[in-house]
DNA sequence: TGTCAACTTTACACGGTGTCAAGCAAAGGA
DNA sequence: TCCTTTGCTTGACACCGTGTAAAGTTGACA
């Protein structure tokens, strides 16, 4: 029961962290806030997660698991044509962003100062880039990639279009609806990259 | 002579700040670093600029003046057609970004925590948005705005495309050349917004 | 009964921002 | 010549958030 309580506490902390970050993104959420929200002492948090970056990393993984990213992104891999794949990927990732925005924002804020956080975020974004790369390759294999576009540049462009910062700018700063955002990204990707 | 030295010190501090930020963007530049680089005590900096945000704001204005933003952006206002105006604006602003990137990055890092810095940065970006708005309006007046696009959405899209974060992503993270960046932004804006 | 594991409480070090107060040196006027 | 003002220096300190250290508490279980 003690060992299960150990795990339960860990989960409680991660759950509280993701809840707080999701509730008030942009607000600086402190370790003590997370501790309080978990119903645990600040030091208990440090017992489970040596640093803030460690907690953030674990929380991100935890969220991926709870939200089942793999399944959410599976549709795009099942697509037959390149165009479908591109569309499905934009749909999947574009709609995943708001679900992880709180944690993402915390990462982006720490990135500048914390080495470990920067590396972890880079990893996640590299993984996302692979999705972009696969969509572009599928497009190219169909002969549907706009002529004169090399795959790497096309991937970079798509990657930029689908960055969390672009989502943030349009949805948070400009006040676009999630649907308008996804449609705009599809439109941009289509007109820019598809022949 | 004392009153002129007063101004000189102020300028020295702002010059040192912009130099340090430009030299090592991404590195956290502290007030004490700026003081040292200015050849002045840390408290002298606080004598001239009550807070870090104040220093940043003044430095940004100072930089605008030294680099002569107005002139750099003038070409776009002189353009006759909407398409020319769009192109000229992307050219001007897109090439201005790297010149202010150091300071911009400092603002973006502070934005999350500092109210004053966030407001000042928002002001600057709103001013930039007016440029986007004007370009889109000129396009619409020529009947060259893609049908089914309302001007506000088009402005938002262009604004997002020309954000410092987009520049950062492509040039800093993806390693694109400044020229490739500007061309890509022109291409994206053209294919997405021009009829 | 005693041990171990998870957790609590309290205290403290560190780095960065911002404040406060006393002192100093040079310019400039009486 | 003396005296005031101005621009700056020096050194100390408060505050906050992260992270560390150490001793104490509580419940499970052998």
Provide a descriptive summary of the structure in words.
2 copies of one chain form a homodimer. The first copy, chain A, has 195 residues and is an all-alpha fold. Chain A has 2 domains: 2-49, Orthogonal Bundle (Arc Repressor Mutant, subunit A); 65-193, Tetracycline Repressor, domain 2 (Orthogonal Bundle), CATH 1.10.357.10. Chain A is built from 10 helices and no strands. Chain A has helices at 2-23, 31-38, 42-48, 52-67, 69-78, 82-111, 115-141, 151-161, 164-173, 178-193. In chain A, α5 (69-78) runs antiparallel to α6. The longest helix of chain A has 30 residues, at 82-111. Chain A is elongated, with a radius of gyration of 19 Å. Chain A binds a DNA duplex (30 and 30 nucleotides) through residues 1-3, 5-6, 9, 28, 30-32, 40-41, 43-44, 46-47, 50-52.
């Amino acid at each position: 029961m003690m060992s299960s309580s150990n795990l339960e506490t860990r989960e409680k902390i991660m759950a509280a962290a993701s809840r707080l970050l999701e509730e008030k993104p942009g607000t600086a959420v402190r370790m003590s806030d997370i501790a309080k929200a978990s119903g645990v002492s600040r030091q208990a948090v440090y017992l489970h997660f040596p640093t803030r970056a460690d907690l953030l990393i674990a929380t991100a993984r935890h969220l991926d698991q709870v939200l089942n990213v793999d399944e959410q992104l599976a549709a795009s891999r099942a697509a037959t044509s390149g165009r479908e794949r591109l569309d499905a990927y934009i749909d999947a990732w574009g709609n995943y962003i708001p679900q992880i925005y709180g944690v993402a924002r915390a990462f982006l804020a720490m990135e500048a100062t914390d080495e470990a956080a920067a590396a972890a975020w880079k990893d996640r974004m590299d993984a996302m880039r692979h999705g972009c790369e696969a969509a572009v390759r599928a497009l190219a294999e169909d002969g549907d990639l706009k002529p004169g576009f090399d795959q790497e540049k096309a991937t970079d462009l798509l990657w930029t279009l689908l960055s969390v910062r672009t989502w943030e700018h349009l949805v948070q700063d400009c006040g676009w609806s999630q649907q308008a955002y996804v449609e705009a990204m599809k439109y941009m990707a289509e007109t820019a990259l598809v022949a």
